[in-house]
Amino acid sequence: DDRLWLPYAVARYVEIAGDGAVLDEVVPFLDGPTLAAGQPESYFEPRGADERGTLFEHCARALDQGLTVGVHGLPLMGTGDWNDGMNEVGAGGRGESIWLGWFLHAALSEWAGLAEARGEGKRAGRWREHVDALQASLEREGWDGGWYRRAYFDDGTPLGSAVNDACRIDSIAQSWSVISAAAAPARQARAMAAVEAHLVRRADNLVLLFTPPFGETSLEPGYIKGYVPGVRENGGQYTHAAVWSAIAFAELGDGDTATELFAMLNPINHARTDAAVERYKVEPYAVAADVYAEPPHVGRGGWTWYTGSAGWMYRAGLEWILGFRLRGTRLVIDPCIPRAWARFEMVFRHRSARYDIAVENPRGVSRGVAAVEVDGAPLDGDLTVELTDDGTVHRVRVVLG
């Protein structure tokens, strides 16, 4: 999936900046040797190629590379998708990833619109056709009856299924069914209910990646099985994925669970007592990439200062829970908060101006903006705040309900 994160991240930047000019930046491609037959990987220093292209072209080629599918109509997994340690699931070239299907659906849906706007109608059409086919395959082949499967091995054996004795349910296949907005709404709700039932361990303050971990099982997913069960990607809390679970609950409008999970992931909450400090063992002021989930190390933090989950956690709190979403010079406030929160405030500086934002929740709801006022004047219709660079203080009042 590494090549697909570039277009996904670029699409987010264009959306937030409100300007697609970055897509016209010309940068060189990289050049390196292709893998030989039977060579699973290669470490080398890439060099700049003679060929150059716009950032749009770089992203478009990455997306086009992801359009290959297997017998179930799902993206080929190769030697790992987001979970590098599952490097044997599709090593034979036939294994498929359900999580990657959701992620690719999200990326292609965004880029079809960007391509259309640039006159790339042929590409946009091809991507939209693939999105439609992918959605049908995900629902037909991905649903396990109570949640979504994670993948298929080269031989067609499912992973992340109730029939498995390890990795029976994997969180990212569930959370991205919601984040991608591709799954049927009823199944989104069931999938996240399964996450809460099987993967949220409130007594231990953990949100697991999957369960059970790989141990005494005939399944051979790859080097992930070399980790001690409950450590890192092998069934511990992998914070990157746990944040996605919180985001998915917010997307479903469940502010109570989203904020509860956010608090469970917050490192400071793992160090509130001497006993908690002794158990956690790592810094309480930096997000840990992982937290162990099996005795005798339950609750022990893993790698810190080394995780992209820190950025995702910031976004989860700011964008999905507090609802602060910037789109160029336009600001949307659409919170998803605990029903018990009566009010919260934010201060935002836009160039020379300052915006004091107060969100009120008089009816005790999690989501739903009823009214927005800017400097005492109500907004009608589109409840978007148009930002100005006028050196003054503006007061924004948002009322939920």
Question: What is the strand and helix layout of this fold?
Answer:
Blueprint: H1 2-17, E1 26-31, E2 47-54, H2 55-65, E3 96-97, H3 98-117, H4 121-142, E4 151-152, E5 158-159, E6 169-170, H5 171-179, H6 185-198, E7 200-201, E8 206-207, E9 210-211, E10 237-238, H7 239-251, H8 255-265, H9 274-280, E11 290-291, H10 309-321, E12 324-327, E13 330-333, E14 343-350, E15 353-360, E16 369-374, E17 377-378, E18 385-386, E19 393-400
Parallel strand pairs: 15-19
Antiparallel strand pairs: 1-2, 3-4, 4-5, 6-9, 7-8, 10-11, 12-13, 13-18, 14-15, 16-17, 16-19
Helix pairs in contact: 1-2, 1-3, 3-4, 3-5, 5-6, 5-7, 7-8, 7-10, 8-10
What is the global morphology? globular
Order of secondary-structure elements: HEEHEHHEEEHHEEEEHHHEHEEEEEEEE
Proportion in β-strands: 15-25%
- Major beta-sheet overview: 5 strands, mixed
Mean pLDDT across every amino acid position: 96
Q: Fraction of residues in helices?
A: 25-40%
- Give me the Rg, rounded: 22 Å
Number of DSSP helical runs: 10
Low-confidence stretches: none
Attribute tags:
401 residues, alpha+beta, 18% strand, 3-stranded antiparallel sheet, globular, 5-stranded mixed sheet
